[in-house]
């Protein structure tokens, strides 16, 4: 039987790797690397660095494949569905042709595989379709949300309260009415600048856990413009940006 490991590698700092992930890395024969063919080379580099640093006394190989990109401009959910179908074809080819019987393959997932990542959904779809057989395990990683909270030294929730984890796209529909703490990911549009909520506090972080890390916190109305400017400059300097933020209502110290 072929075996696959979906290993969460943490969201930036190679020190985020867990002991369980190190043990898993040391079982792998083939690492599958999906290349988006853009300036996110640093993210691919980090995966290679992790292997060099944590694997000892064992041969392994990398197999790279071009990663399909989402069609821009059309309906979002449909485009994501198409993207995942295209990715499924790539995964099927990799697992079918590049992994031998009895071998162990791995996908190194940024942060944690449970959070805004399609790897698990795609593997489940492949098994459902029944053209390939394999077993797989999931190794959790430190997500960008945990890294953000740690770097700002804040809890994500207020005492006994809920948090919501959402996207910039959803936040654009308005700050949720039933929670006071909201974590926002995948926001390409500076949605925080369009919220009319004078009591909101923001904890923002870009490239958290990496040498390029930037952190800004404060009353949203006081720091929003600074974050937008900093974000724009960082994106121009690096060619890409990944940022996450926690918004907290009615509280200026985050506890
Ligand atoms: C496709 S999601 C993947 C999330 C990932 N699975 C995780 O556990 O963090 C990508 C989004 O995660 C956030 N992100 C990932 N790494 C980050 C980092 N080091 N610093 C800030 N935000 C990050 C950004 O919001 C980015 O748009």
Automatic annotation (TrEMBL):
Record carries keyword Transferase: yes
Pfam hit, one: TP_methylase
UniProt KW Zinc-finger keyword: no
Keywords annotated in UniProt: Cobalamin biosynthesis, Methyltransferase, S-adenosyl-L-methionine, Transferase
Entries under InterPro entries matching the protein: 4pyrrol_Mease, 4pyrrol_Methylase_sf, 4pyrrole_Mease_sub1, 4pyrrole_Mease_sub2, CobF
Domain Tetrapyrrole methylase: 3-223
Pathway(s): Cofactor biosynthesis; adenosylcobalamin biosynthesis
SUPFAM superfamilies referenced in this protein's UniProt entry, alphabetically: Tetrapyrrole methylase (SSF53790)
Protein name, per record: Precorrin-6A synthase (Deacetylating)
Species: Pseudomonas solani
């Amino acid at each position: 039987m072929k075996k696959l490991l979906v290993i969460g590698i943490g969201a930036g700092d190679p020190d985020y790797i867990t002991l369980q992930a190190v043990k898993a890395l040391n079982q792998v024969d083939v690492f599958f690397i999906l290349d988006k063919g853009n300036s996110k080379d640093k993210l691919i580099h980090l995966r290679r660095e992790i292997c060099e640093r944590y694997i000892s006394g064992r041969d392994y190989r990398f197999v790279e494949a071009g990663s399909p990109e989402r069609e821009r401009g059309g309906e979002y959910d449909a485009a994501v569905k198409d993207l995942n179908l295209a990715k499924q074809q790539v995964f099927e080819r990799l697992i079918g042709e590049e992994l031998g019987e009895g071998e162990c393959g791995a996908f190194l997932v940024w942060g944690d595989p449970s959070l805004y990542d399609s790897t698990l959904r795609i593997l489940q779809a492949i098994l459902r379709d029944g053209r390939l057989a394999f077993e797989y395990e999931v190794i959790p990683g430190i997500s960008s949300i945990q890294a953000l909270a740690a770097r700002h030294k804040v809890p994500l929730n207020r005492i006994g309260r809920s948090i919501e984890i959402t996207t910039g796209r959803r936040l654009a529909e308005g700050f949720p009415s039933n929670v006071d703490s909201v974590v926002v990911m995948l926001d390409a549009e500076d949605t925080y600048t369009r919220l009319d909520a004078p009591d909101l506090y923001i904890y923002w972080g870009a490239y958290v856990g990496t040498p390029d890390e930037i952190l800004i916190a404060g009353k949203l109305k006081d720091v929003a413009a600074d974050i937008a400017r900093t974000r724009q400059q960082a994106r121009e300097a690096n060619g890409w940006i990944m940022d996450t933020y926690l918004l907290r209502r009615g509280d200026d110290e985050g506890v």
